[in-house]
From TrEMBL:
<dbReference type="InterPro" id="IPR050624">
    <property type="entry name" value="HTH-type_Tx_Regulator"/>
</dbReference>
<dbReference type="InterPro" id="IPR001647">
    <property type="entry name" value="HTH_TetR"/>
</dbReference>
<dbReference type="Pfam" id="PF00440">
    <property type="entry name" value="TetR_N"/>
</dbReference>
<keyword id="KW-0238">DNA-binding</keyword>
<feature type="DNA-binding region" description="H-T-H motif">
    <location>
        <begin position="24"/>
        <end position="43"/>
    </location>
</feature>
<dbReference type="GO" id="GO:0003677">
    <property type="term" value="F:DNA binding"/>
</dbReference>
<dbReference type="InterPro" id="IPR009057">
    <property type="entry name" value="Homeodomain-like_sf"/>
</dbReference>
<keyword id="KW-0678">Repressor</keyword>
<protein>
    <submittedName>
        <fullName>TetR/AcrR family transcriptional regulator</fullName>
    </submittedName>
</protein>
<feature type="domain" description="HTH tetR-type">
    <location>
        <begin position="1"/>
        <end position="61"/>
    </location>
</feature>
Amino acid sequence: MSKKQIIMEKALELFAKQGFESTSIQQITDYCGISKGAFYLSFKSKDQLIIALIDHFMEEFISDIDHLVKTSNDDALLYTFYHTILQSFRKHSDFGKLLIKEQTHTLNDELLEKLHYYNNEMDKIILYLIERQYGEEIKHTKYDLMYCIKSFTGMYSELFLFNSVPLDLDLNLLSQSLVEKTSILATHTTITFISEEIVQLSKLQTKKEIKKEEIIHLLEQKIEDIKDAITKESLILLKQHILERNLSPAIVTGLIKNLQNHPDCKWISYLLRGACHLS
């Protein structure tokens, strides 16, 4: 584990106990057993540390959902989507509660931009799921259905964020229930409100798409940081492919799968799936 990861892990423990505002950089460095200089080598400020924690959670969450949606069997697609999201909300409920409690401190322009970006990425995943699950049958209502699915996941996540539900809550039953509700809406909705134009208009202020140069930069960082030989070699080959397009789709898919299985490479694997146009 890198020093940056240790700081994030330890800081999260303090934030959970004391809140963002009440936790100082000095307390974080004391808790980590490092100097302030070592902290500032990793983070310019406490706000940057908080943003990094949010990035870490959202990047892992989105990359996991994207991977499962694109690799699950058709029959289990909707169920897998809902079950994975609900499981993640339950697993990270303490972090979610912390963000909601401290939102007045964290709600700055940088965070808003990031949240818009991650929301945009989730929209892409859900639209892919809808198109794969229902095809042309719901071409005119798919954007309405996308918002319904987002609403379901948001509403039912409240079970873990605001209510003292038992930890052994039957996620299988809840996921099956949401699949049934979604299928009813997909089959019977005839009046549509959300159009592609409305969706595109709502995204005008979102973060721009990540450019090839940014992906190359992230790959170079990972190549330097990762010690595992197979993962490092996969990163090197994929960087070369981004530059030269010299590998077959099957080889690229295998290399990206190597990254998906590494806990520190899930986000770069997600970005590469998009950059290499892989489903």
